[in-house]
Design goal:
This protein has two domains: 167 residues, Rossmann fold (3-Layer(aba) Sandwich); 111 residues, Calcium-transporting ATPase, cytoplasmic domain N, CATH 3.40.1110. The radius of gyration is 20 Å and the shape is elongated. With 286 residues, it is α/β, with parallel strands linked by helices. It starts with a helix and ends with a helix. The strands form two sheets. It has a seven-stranded mixed β-sheet, with helices on both faces. Strands 3-8-7-6-5-4 form a six-stranded antiparallel β-sheet, sandwiched between helices. Bound molecules: adenosine-5'-diphosphate and magnesium ion. Adenosine-5'-diphosphate binds next to helix 3, helix 5, strand 5, strand 6 and strand 7.
Length: 286
């Protein structure tokens, strides 16, 4: 590999918005066989909005939003932005907040422990079941539940838009004979909605960060070269594990730090150009 060809390709890609932060990234990208995508903030734009609030208690919708906002002030997840925006001005603060990536968060508000996250996270943490969670999830929205150890207070339904160029990128990857998978911590209907919209046929939902890691390791053990594309704190371990990793520029700091490349452009299909460019460079230099 002549250093000049690689330097030229690297700078062309950087100018287009695909920043190469690790020297070997292009060579590994050219060899990747399996492209694995996170959902929220990766295939979707990460500009979530609260669509509906279901209140299961005597608290008002705006009270519930305040408790949720007190917790979300401690999170970088795109869901946090959506809830904080909907809550407006914050009237409560939370202490000792613990984030569980891929699940939710909990912390103390006015002397009581509050939980916010997936229905299964709430069930594990509080032993309360969110009885109509299946009905809430059926529409394919992301569902976030607010509860204390004693009671379920509300559920927030959130929706996101697809990222520009997502369907084109997936079509390109399949056309070149690559394997493509979607891994998400979100529930099955939400995962399927996005997968169908962008054309991905292999989908794994309800995954914790460790499950994502196990999936990637299993692929590698069977000889695949994995390219991982993600944005969140929950994706940092898989980004580090993959042979080549791409973080979204708008994603979390820890994801960017774990990645070999950073996509600064809003256009996801730029990644397709990156793969072509990487392969061409390797052909030239050989
Ligand atoms: P993805 O893998 O699609 O990027 P995550 O693994 O980050 O999604 O999150 C999975 C699910 O965990 C979300 O759909 C949400 O229900 C819940 N969750 C994660 N982080 C938060 C948060 N900060 N606030 C509320 N819910 C959260
Ligand atoms: Mg994500």
């Amino acid at each position: 590999a002549t250093p000049t060809a690689i330097t030229a390709a690297t700078s062309a890609l950087t100018q287009a918005g695909l920043l190469v932060t690790r020297g070997t990234a292009l060579e590994t990208l050219a060899q990747a066989t399996h492209f694995i995508f996170d959902k929220t903030g990766t295939l979707t734009a990460g500009r979530l909005a609260v669509q509906q609030v279901h209140v299961f208690s005597n608290k008002t919708e705006s009270d519930c939003l305040q408790f949720a906002a007190a917790l979300e002030q401690h999170s970088e997840h795109p869901i946090a932005k959506a809830i904080l925006t909907r809550a407006g001005e914050y009237t409560l603060t939370a202490q000792s907040v613990v984030n569980t990536p891929g699940s939710g968060l909990h912390g103390e508000i006015a002397g009581e422990m509050w939980y916010l996250g997936t229905p299964s996270f709430i069930a594990e943490q509080t032993h309360l079941s969110v009885t109509d969670s299946q009905a809430l999830q059926a529409g394919g929205d992301t569902v976030v539940v607010l509860a204390t150890g004693q009671q379920v207070y509300a559920a927030f339904l959130l929706a996101d838009e697809l990222r520009e160029g997502a369907a084109k990128l997936i079509a390109d990857l399949y056309a070149r004979g690559h394997r493509v998978s979607l891994l998400t911590g979100d529930h099955e209907a939400a995962a399927k909605r996005v997968a169908d919209a962008v054309g991905i046929t292999t989908v794994q939902s309800g995954l914790k960060p460790d499950d994502k890691l196990a999936f990637v390791r299993a692929c590698q053990a069977s000889g695949e070269v994995v390219a991982m594309i993600g944005d969140g704190v929950n994706d940092a371990p898989v980004l580090a594990q993959a042979q080549v990793s791409i973080a979204m520029g708008g994603g979390t700091q820890v994801a960017r730090a774990s990645a070999d490349m950073i996509l600064l452009s809003e256009q996801l299909s730029l990644l397709s150009k990156g793969v072509v460019q990487a392969k061409r460079t390797l052909v030239i230099v050989r």
